[in-house]
Amino acid sequence: MSLFSMTAAVALNRFGLGARPGEIAAVRPDPRGWLHAQLRPETALPAPMAALPATVDDLGAFRKWTAELARSARARGMDPATMRSAPADRRQATTIGSMAGAAAGDDNNIGDDVASAAASMRAQASGMSRIGADGLSVEGSFKQVFGPRHARALKARFDVAVATERPFFERLVHFWSNHFVVSGAKPGAIAMPPSFERDAIRPHVTGRFVDMLLASTKHPAMLFYLDNLLSIGPTSALAQNPALRRRPAQQDFAIPRSIGLNENLAREILELQTLGARGGYDQADVTSLARIITGWTIARPPRVSYARL
User: Fold this and answer.
1) Is the pLDDT of residue 253 over 80?
2) The whole model's pTM is what?
3) 127-164 as b/e, with b when 16 or more CB fall inside 10 Å?
């Protein structure tokens, strides 16, 4: 293989997704130019990606699923917020309880469904096997509802990678999706990775890092995954007046006795997404950032302002 062909092969394999038949010869005259040409902003989503549900649809599907779980539990005489006797571990217990307590809202937001999501987690932790309206376990119900959605998203990602004429761009999409990762191991977060990559990552791959950082931080998948919707400023009206935390009609869900800042997302931003573990920040910086982003959420109690942190 000539030096020019070797350079083309490096461009295709190291920066792209591998050489297809005939591509080495096509790229050989100008490998660097071939790469640079792919760094133009994306003007339209690839057809398989455009056909996927939007973020709002992912949220709607998750809302519908959790609401159905809550209805099914109540129909069986169970309290969705307390239907497990012991969680799998203490950290899960804290997360579940916090989700249930932080949930609040009306029919136009998903606050009560966060509590329902907590209920589903409780059911799984206790090994409850029959809760769904169709007789499925919580886990089985989730797989039935969201399994096909994930399968379609995975196929779309694969189809784009195979057919794309911009493999360098697609490799960057994969890289940044891995950098701003959301776990599929948590209800809420698991329902939205497909729209997270499409709506928070792809539009900013060739743009500014700060824009991608903001888009990923504010996306519902990230807010669910790192619990920022549970973060409440200690001097806010919501923290100081428990009566505001939930309407009487929603009191069947337990309200946590202690609430405050949740630093998960702030720490992730500093430690993993930007400065790094030894980036020169300290605990005070983590707390300050947590105060700044408290209120970045997907729902809020209708009578409470987050203006005061």
Assistant:
1) no
2) 0.73
3) ebeebbeeebbbebbbeebbeebeeebeebbeebbeeb
